[in-house]
Amino acid sequence: MQLQLSALRAQRGTMDVYRHPTMLDARPAENRSIDTASRRGPANGAITRMLDRSSARPSALETFWRGFRRFCPRCGQGHMFAGYLSVRTACEVCGLEFEPLRSDDVPPYFTLFIVGHLVVSLYLAFWRMLDMPAWAQALVWCGLTLVLSLVLLPFIKGGVMAVIFLTKAKA
Ligand SMILES: [Zn+2]
Prior knowledge:
Blueprint: H1 2-19, H2 29-39, H3 41-56, H4 60-68, H5 106-126, H6 134-167
Helix pairs in contact: 4-6, 5-6
Bound molecules: zinc ion.
Zinc ion binds at residues 72, 74-75, 78, 91, 93-94, 96.
């Protein structure tokens, strides 16, 4: 039994040598490490470059946030809009073309979805507290809906365009 165990250990030891080729090296550890480092140099460089690239790539949330603030989703520096809703042809910093990121009627849909839920909730919560005639209430809530929609729409359009950029959806 003892013999079998030691034979097994010896076998495992041999396998360890295959897994760690440096174990075959009889030289002192400090000499070995220099040698293996120089041998693995290019491969390590490639891995480092890959890691650099992945760390430089922004997260999906960061890309969305860039678009929401109406900046280019790729570089985060160029402006995506020339006016209130008119989109530039390309980014002035990185050259990303904005034409393929057409959002069509998705931004108004999301804007109405958000504003509708918000205003109706506020109305249901506060309409009794406002001591106003019905026509004044209608004016206040409709006015709030209009203002919120107009304020949110350009930002939501930027965010939607960033999501199209992220998912590479075809317009
Ligand atoms: Zn850009």
